[in-house]
Amino acid sequence: MSAAKNINITLKIWRQKNAKAKGQIETYKLNNVSTASSFLEMLDQLNEQLINEKKEPVAFDHDCREGICGMCSLYINGRAHGPDTGTTTCQLHMRKFNDGDTIYIEPWRSKAFPVVKDLVVDRSAFDRIQQAGGFVSVNTSGRTIDANAIPVPKHDADRAFEAAACIGCGACVATCKNGSAMLFVGAKVSQYALLPQGKVEATQRVLNMVRQMDEEGFGNCTNTGACEVECPKGISLENIARMNREYLKASLK
Amino acid sequence: MAKSALLKSSLAKKYWMALTGLFLCLFLAGHLAGNLQLIFSDASAFNKYALFMTSNPAVKILSYLTYFSILFHAFDGFLLTYQNIKARPIGYAKNNPSKNSSFSSRNMAVLGTLILVFIVTHMVNFWAKMHFDKNMPLQTITVEQMGQKMDYYVTTDNGKFYPADASQLEQMGLEIRNRTEFYNKQANVKMAEGYKDLHKITVAFFKNSKFGLIATLAYVLAMFVLAFHLWHGFQSAFQSMGLNHPRYTPFIKGFGKAFAVLVPLLFAIIPVYIHFFLK
Question: Could you tell me if A134 and A68 lie in one domain?
Fold first, then answer.
């Protein structure tokens, strides 16, 4: 890998005071950005510059900065989590950009993810979907049995684990031309439907989660497959198919 | 709960989209087989087939199912598109969808609308003429008798001659009722049925000196649109119905792409053949 160097970039960032305000794209020049810095560090650098200029810093979501919490979002140059595949925004580095580049940074765009401020969106719609059925009811009165006591076929366990890798970041919704949340819901439905512990409530779960998804105002899946490509965790479209199957089965019951 | 879920929910709309779409794929295959007779068969066989397709009760049921599927597929598509547009009130200033999805998959609504327009014009040009046009000609053949050329109707009554000349027909005590039925006037008995000459109408349509070329080109263009629609639609229907399996999906996708190329290609060859090569 070539040694780090400093680049000068132009940023076009969505600025919006609050949920009700009308936002717009604003342009910022940022010089001496190290290509060794991460994308979020670059934004930190911009904010420092803005604070020094006595301007409002750009609000953006972040937490773990190691690709597992699902907090960071950002639609970078027309792609969710930026140009890399299989990574979150916090895992994106400035070495992916060149001197003189113009970088567009926008929030996730979805009716169900309203902008809170600047690049921060409210993703609690995902929480409500999860609350509608994304759990297994267990009696926790003290006589719980070891989960490993129930045999699970390796194949199913692997598929469930892959589905459970979903961090709920919302890139699928952001990138879908229909603003559909079906990859997220598909992953959450699959994660439980594949395991014996989850089968007990499978019927109600899929009906309730899909109903909640529709109520939140997400769009409808048209199988473009964009979500699968942009998902930082590589959640497969097979999970949407599994949800479709589960739902059909549940509806006919 | 379950019942309303199968009608209203987002997933239900996908199921209906998929089912009607796949049924329409079957229809395309059947329609293509019929059309290919324009190249590989003669006018008589084609017109016989056309009569069968407009009179057989089983075909009638299938045709109503087809009309319903087209209308429902279109209506459901419009509804889904409307909801999908509503799901993103503010779009992106910069978007790069070609990095993660195919042209076909992103433009199903536009492609579908174009196909709907094509279907309507296509039905006006052929289906409506076949069903409702009072001037739809009956198929005739020319027979040379003693150095004289005479036209006769081709009818279901094989072997019997029904002269195409109105006065001669009258002399024989025959008249045509309901546009195709030959009746013995005196006995009030139906003798035979003539064949509407859909073959002649079709050939004339694409060979028309003024509009034949435009019609042919428009038809070919419509088949391109259909190919793009099927390119995504065929395999998408299986995914919507929940059929995604590492063992079968590659085959479904491969078959779908072959179907998307071959079926519109064969459809398009027919008017090209009629316009440029048919004598």
Answer: no
Beta carbons of B93 and A25 less than 8 Å apart: yes
**What tokens were used for A237?**
């479209």
Phi, psi of A113 (to 5 degrees): -115, 75
Q: Which of A79, A106, A178 is closest, CB to CB, to B99?
A: A79
Question: Nearest chain A Cα to B109, which residue?
Answer: A222
What's the distance, CA A115 to chain centroid?
15
0.90 surpassed by complex ipTM:
yes
pLDDT tens digits in sequence order for chain A, 253 residues long: 568 899 999 999 999 999 999 999 999 999 999 999 999 999 999 999 999 999 999 999 999 999 999 999 999 999 999 999 999 999 999 999 999 999 999 999 999 999 999 999 999 999 999 999 999 998 888 877 787 889 999 999 999 999 999 999 999 999 999 999 999 999 999 999 999 999 999 999 999 999 999 999 999 999 999 999 999 999 999 999 999 999 999 999 8
The label of the residue with tokens 């001197």 reads A99
**Amino acid at position A155, single letter:** H
**pLDDT grade, residue B145 (50/70/90)?**
confident
Length of chain B in residues, anyone? 279
Specify the pairing of strand A6-15 against strand A102-106.
Answer: parallel
Nearest to B244 by CA among A223, A185, A134, A155: A223
Same domain, A149 and A241: yes
List, for residues B82-95, the tens digit of each pLDDT value.
999 999 999 999 99
**Burial letters for A62-85: b for 16+ Cβ neighbours within 10 Å, e otherwise?**
beebebebbbbbbbbbbbbbbebe
Strands A79-80 and A75-76, sheet pairing: antiparallel
Q: List chain B residues with CB under 8 Å of A223.
A: 105, 232, 235-236, 239-240
How many Cβ atoms sit within 10 Å of the Cβ of residue B277?
8
Task: Give the residue ranges of DSSP H helices in B107-248.
Answer: 108-122, 128-132, 166-171, 198-207, 212-240
Q: How many CB pairs under 8 A join A and B?
A: 148
One domain for residues A154 and A186: yes
What domains appear along chain B, each with residue ranges and CATH number?
Answer: 2-136+198-276 (1.20.1300.10), 140-193 (no CATH)
Give the residue numbers spanning the domain of A46. 6-116
**Rounded Cα gap, residues B277 and B54, in angstroms:** 29
Side chain identity at residue B97, one-letter code: P
Q: How far is CA A196 from the centre of its chain?
A: 27
Q: Name which of A222, A235, A243, A245 to mutate to probe chain B: the one with the most chain B Cβ atoms within 10 A of its Cβ.
A: A222
Strand partners, B176: B182
Out of A109, A222, A247, name the one closest to residue B88 (CB).
A109
